[in-house]
Amino acid sequence: MQNQESTAVFEEFQRQYNTFYSIGDLTPTLCALWGIREPAACGGKTIAPVLDQADKLMDGLGKVEKTVLFCADALGNAQKEYYTEAFEKIRKVAGFEIKSTAVMPSVTPVCFGTIFSGAAPCVHGIMKYEKPVLSVETLFDVFAESGKNVAIIAVNECSIDKIFRQRKVDYYSVRTDEQSFQLARRFIAEDTYDLILCYMIGYDAAMHKTGPFSETAAAQAKLAAERFSQFSEDMETYWKKYNRVLSFVVDHGGHSVDEQHGGHGENIPEDMIVNHYYRICEKSC
Ligand SMILES: [Zn+2]
Description:
Layout: H1 2-17, E1 21-22, H2 26-34, H3 48-58, E2 66-72, H4 77-82, H5 84-94, E3 96-101, H6 108-115, H7 121-124, H8 139-145, E4 150-155, H9 159-163, E5 170-174, H10 177-190, E6 195-200, H11 202-210, H12 215-238, E7 244-249, E8 255-256, E9 262-263, H13 269-272, E10 273-281
Parallel strand pairs: 1-3, 2-6, 2-7, 4-5, 4-6
Antiparallel strand pairs: 3-10, 7-10, 8-9
Zinc ion binds at residues 73-74, 108, 204, 251-252.
């Protein structure tokens, strides 16, 4: 029942913006790639081209063993159209670009709540800009249940730092994006975790203060592409013996509010259309 409710919400936005996918499709897709059950309230669907590729490369589904989720706040489709070089780099690294619609209101805790539960806001319970601990089952719960080691790395007090608490995972709450990035790199090198979520707030913070296409915002978009590419290299170096997935995960986009400021939260294409990226690699011995 709840699952159908979520599916109906996702499909409505897909119709409105003419996309095949929703941000709610990431969790069921990762679960299928890993062979782990979906969270209870999940209403998203698996992304067929991504699963097909994994099936071919790994000779079957459910065989992924390591994953990094690089969550880049507010780097949506409007940003992709403007920052062509940065996004071309991301697309080249990943291979798969999955155009998807966000949910309303298109703000961080609402959207990441949906991304990691596969449930619509009316089901997962965060329906405005607030950061309570999410009460529905998430990707992190089902991974922990399957005995996987999960790390969530984010700057202090941001949505990702707060709404996924009280799970059997390790939380790293740091002061800067650079610390999040370096910590995630260290965990890849040390082979400490199975699933690493590394969050980046930089572009979102810059776009609110200086506008989505300011110099400061542009530097953050470029940095996001560089970090994503570095993760790919690190995974290649240290995780060669594992079947692995690297994903670029976006919550919402953003638009200009006035000449100096940006914002998001509305039901408009600039805020609602995002792209998720997947890089699928099979182990090599
Ligand atoms: Zn956000």
